[in-house]
């Protein structure tokens, strides 16, 4: 068996040297972007799952649900500068959770509603 046939499985560079398992820069960058986006999505899903642990909408009575809906409450604030944890009505309890003075009930620290007011 000749040396040439032994190395046919690998690509060669301009100097004729064998490059085993080479990856282009473009491919490397694409994989880096995929990993970064995947990590960000996993983090967001984890935060939303933790927010769901704080607030059980199925266990709430109609009055509390109506109040939250009327104030457009969300478990994840659309404005990163205005989460519940930075609101004057929020009292922290456990990690990621707390109590809201408006709802008089548990809420997610990263949540938001229309009654948000900066802590003084």
Give a brief description.
This protein has helices spanning 3-6, 25-54, 62-70, and strands spanning 11-12, 18-19, 90-92, 97-100, 105-108. The chain is α+β, with helices and mostly antiparallel strands.
Description:
This protein has 3 helices and 5 strands, in the order αββααβββ. By secondary structure, the protein is an alpha+beta fold. It has one domain: High potential iron-sulphur protein (High-Potential Iron-Sulfur Protein, Chain A), CATH 4.10.490. The strands form 2 sheets. A 3-stranded antiparallel beta sheet has the order 3-4-5, with helices on one face. A two-stranded antiparallel ribbon has the order 1-2. A hairpin with a 4-residue loop joins strand 4 and strand 5. The N and C termini lie far apart (81 Å). About 6% of the residues have low confidence.
- Biggest sheet statistics: 3 strands, antiparallel
SS content category: alpha+beta
CATH topology: High-Potential Iron-Sulfur Protein, Chain A
Tell me the β content: 5-15%
What share of the residues lie within helices? 25-40%
The CATH C-level name is Few Secondary Structures
Uncertain runs are 44-50
Shape: elongated
Main sheet strand line-up: 3-4-5
| Element string (H = helix, E = strand) | HEEHHEEE
Termini separation comes to: 81 Å
- Number of strand elements: 5
Q: Radius of gyration, Cα only, in angstroms? A: 26 Å
Number of helices: 3
Number of domains: 1
Mean pLDDT: 78
State the CATH architecture: Irregular
CATH superfamily: High potential iron-sulphur protein
Please give the structural blueprint:
Blueprint: H1 3-6, E1 11-12, E2 18-19, H2 25-54, H3 62-70, E3 90-92, E4 97-100, E5 105-108
Antiparallel strand pairs: 1-2, 3-4, 4-5
